[in-house]
Design brief:
Layout lengths: L3 E4 L2 E3 L5 E7 L6 E9 L6 E7 L4 E3 L7 E6 L4 E6 L8 E9 L2 E4 L3 E5 L2
Parallel strand pairs: 2-11
Antiparallel strand pairs: 1-3, 3-8, 4-5, 4-9, 5-6, 7-8, 9-10, 9-11
Amino acid sequence: QVQLVESGGGLVQPGGSLRLSCAASASMFNMRAMGWYRQAPGKEREVVATITRYGVPNSADSVKGRFTISRDNAKNTLYLQMNSLKPDDTAVYYCNADTFGGQYWGKGTLVTVSS
């Protein structure tokens, strides 16, 4: 079992920045990949960005150049730096861990981009 706890969400104005964190209860060295997903009201959950156990990142076209995913294996923490936020980025953001024992999800943190 892996527990994931997200933090860092909140209300931000368009053009602003936020950094999300995801604290994992188990060593991230054992995870094949980790990622951030989001679900906006009335929409399906979608991938935002992922990073492999070797640190190779990938991100959705909609956030390329604005969001950066990173991981600190020593702290067992995953990050998502979000810059130039837009109202369309408003969603609940979820942390995901893809382990050899299965997939795990956090409970999510709400990001609201509004003036």
